[in-house]
Specification:
mainly alpha, 2 domains, two-stranded antiparallel sheet, elongated, transmembrane helix, membrane, transmembrane
């Protein structure tokens, strides 16, 4: 992704996050709990007129200049503590958690609710984004690929498996026992009928990869891209009160399948 594209996406996301009344953005209050420690931060964007901050950022020799305690306290330790400009820049780079946080803030500005209520609404949107996903073709492909990968080994090198397969599907002559004493000798026999299907399948996959590359060069969308775009369109249509750009960006970076177990 080029710098210009990233900047355009960042400005577009920032413009959509702002409530429609204009005015200065209020400080975001966040609460973080870790091992019983709770901290409330009313953090405004990083001060640009602070002499210590400017001196530290502009110096060319960071080894001789160390950050002050004020600068250390201003460093965000999570996405909820980042200002809007930093957040949307990270989101424009494709970071999914940053897009989630940007969508939560957009919900806050549109619905006029606090962070907790916006998070609850975001969870509803997230559930809707995962509903009705047709992921079974992917699991079928995974199962078929794993079966072919591990099943081809005994079919080629295991004598008992090779004899069984030959009896029902090949019916070729079995060599003398002295010619089947090792796995390599078995493989030299089974390769007579295993080479054509394995070679043909390998060449077919190579051609399919080439065709996919040419489709992408022409701007045509393979299957997965069509699934992702379709899901993004459905999510934007399901929640028309929110900006479709933010919803689509969130949906596109979300995984197609999410485990429900720990």
């Amino acid at each position: 992704m080029s710098l210009n594209t990233t900047s355009q996406r960042a400005f577009s996301m920032l413009r959509r996050m702002r409530p429609s009344g204009g005015g200065a953005a209020a400080a975001v209050t966040t609460t973080h709990s870790n091992n019983g420690y709770t901290r409330n931060n009313n953090v405004t964007p990083f001060p640009t007129k602070n002499d210590d901050t400017r001196r530290f950022l502009q110096t060319t020799n960071h080894d001789s200049v160390k950050p002050t305690m004020e600068i250390a306290k201003l460093m965000p330790v999570g996405l909820p503590e980042m200002n809007n400009e930093t957040l949307v820049t990270i989101a424009a780079l494709g970071h999914h958690q940053a897009r989630c946080e940007a969508l939560v803030r957009h919900i806050m500005s549109i619905d006029g609710v606090d962070y907790d209520a916006a998070t609850t609404k975001f969870q509803e949107i997230e559930q809707s984004n995962r509903a009705g996903m047709a992921v079974y073709p992917y699991f079928i492909g995974i199962s078929g690929g794993m079966l072919a990968a591990f099943g081809s080994l005994p079919l080629v090198f295991n004598l008992n498996t090779a004899v069984w397969f030959n009896e029902f599907y090949v019916t070729t002559d079995i060599p003398e026992p002295k010619d089947l004493e090792t796995m390599l000798e078995v493989g030299s026999w089974t390769w007579n009928w295993m080479e054509p299907p394995l070679g043909a399948l390998s060449f077919s996959l190579l051609c399919l990869q080439y065709a996919r590359a040419q489709m992408e060069n022409l701007g045509l969308h393979p299957y997965t891209t069509q699934v992702v775009n379709s899901r993004a369109d459905k999510l934007a249509a399901a929640f028309p009160q929110y900006d479709p750009f933010l919803l689509r960006q969130f949906s596109k970076s979300a995984p197609l399948f999410k485990r429900t177990w720990s």
